[in-house]
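I am still learning, so would you mind making up any protein sequence you like and the tokens describing how it folds?
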Amino acid sequence: MRRLDSMPDYARPFAAMLDVVAGLIGATADRAIAPGEEWLYYRHVLALKLLRHLQSLLKLEADQASCAVLARAAIDSYLHFHFLFGSGDAGLAKFRFNAWRLNGMAEGKKLKKPGPPEKQEMQELQQWLKGSPLLAHYAEADQKKLLRGEWQAGHSWDERALAAGLGSAHFRSLYLHLGGYSQTSFTSAMQIAQSNLSDSHSLGATVRAMAVAVMTEFATVYAGLAGGARLKDLPCLDEQDWRAMLERQEAESRRGDERKTVSCRWNQTLMLPYAQKR
């Protein structure tokens, strides 16, 4: 466990929630999986993927571009995790997992011609999906897409983000902004060229606020799925700590430009509800 009292104020909520997430994932790492339920192993794998992105984010916080790319990857990892496993319905989770698995094999065909075992496995997955009553819940066009390996067919990004607790307009704006860094947009290159240390800190504060929101939503879902500890029993900052930190950030933003003020508003929008939720 990190010594939070020795960390700077701006890093404490992020580090505290990172400890929560690591503790939840670690507590379930050695749990046995029943025969025939091996697909559930990937619930743990996706959780680890999210954790490693977030751990790297904490280490590279001074690197504006890397933080943006890692933050986008962390969001996508959580959205995938929630869509696949977050419903709490084992039948739906297995259906979505098998569609995701078929997608992986379909994508693999583009890199290497599949042999007889791979072709057979793809056919078995398609037959499994066809035999599931859940397929009938999809429109005919989406059924065809699913059987081709388009595993998120019938579910828009907005729909999945809203279900995962991340559907606010502020969050969508930030997600799109971060995407510019991972896709090397001209805007991201221009921002890097024109940025200074203060700008990097401003983006870093916004990214940390977003990451705390993602971690809190993930921890809530994961604790329920894996029978982990209740969030209120886990170490984290209380609401008074969060408010004090946000007040300091707001005071700093008044001494800066409008971009910092917008960043501070994003922090307030994203972070306070999660302190109150606990």
About this structure: The radius of gyration is 21 Å. Confidence is low (pLDDT under 50) at residues 228-235, 252-278.
